[in-house]
Amino acid sequence: MAVLDPSSMYGAAAQAPANPTTATGKPGQAVDVQPVIPLATPAANVFRHVQPVVLVSLLVLRFKALVADPTAELFNGLPLVAAIQVAYVLLCLPAAGSEQITKKKTKPGEKKRKEEKVISGVLTAMFSLLLTLTTVLPLHVGFILFGAPLDNYVFETALVSAHTGLLALFPVFYTRGVDADSWVALAGLNTPVDEVMGGAIGCLVGAWLGAVPIPLDWDRDWQRWPVTIVVGMWLGGVVGKGIGGLVVKKTPASG
């Protein structure tokens, strides 16, 4: 059985571009980045709407615990957030490089292409998690540059960075791969605002806006670092994902 290897999904630009990104193939020309179209399976149609509800519900239910002990709550919540995000990308989004499997012809004796897509999706999700892990340090530095405490709350900031990576960047890695031209287009916002891009932007903007209440003289427990950052990040990601899903008015890709 031929299974798409992660190295082929995340190879150089000379390889076939990952779905949903297409390159012009001519030097000096910009990459044509297409929007991420959610899968059209029944599971995708349900879970892509359930996922934000689950995230908001967790935030509401665990808010008091987050205020009481942010470190423990963020640390203990990481596996659950990772599981939710992995389920979301596997059920709802096309994996980077999935076009290569879709276009293959089934030969006698081979298993169905659907099984290959499932296995390649799992491999892509695992590789994307590893890539997300590498973003924790850059995100940590970014939070410090935007005003996070430098000497105190180091572990808390690292945990916030890990949550940011899972919520904002993990779905982008899963759907876009690591093609340099595609990421340049994404960084320059030269890409349609789909639900993946909208979720990432909303997450980052929400984290930034979440810092607003911290210096205010309200003397509330929830004003301490990084409670409002986490709340803004989670809510911003949900709102951005919803807006991005509404902006893209195209027929979902086949599952």
From TrEMBL:
Pathway: Glycolipid biosynthesis; glycosylphosphatidylinositol-anchor biosynthesis. GO terms for cellular component: endoplasmic reticulum membrane. It comes from the Eukaryota. Keywords: Endoplasmic reticulum, GPI-anchor biosynthesis, Membrane, Transmembrane, Transmembrane helix. It is found in: Endoplasmic reticulum membrane. The chain crosses the membrane at residues 77-97, 118-147, 153-175, 196-216, 228-248. GO terms for biological process: GPI anchor biosynthetic process. It is a multi-pass membrane protein. This is GPI biosynthesis protein family Pig-F. It comes from Zalerion maritima.
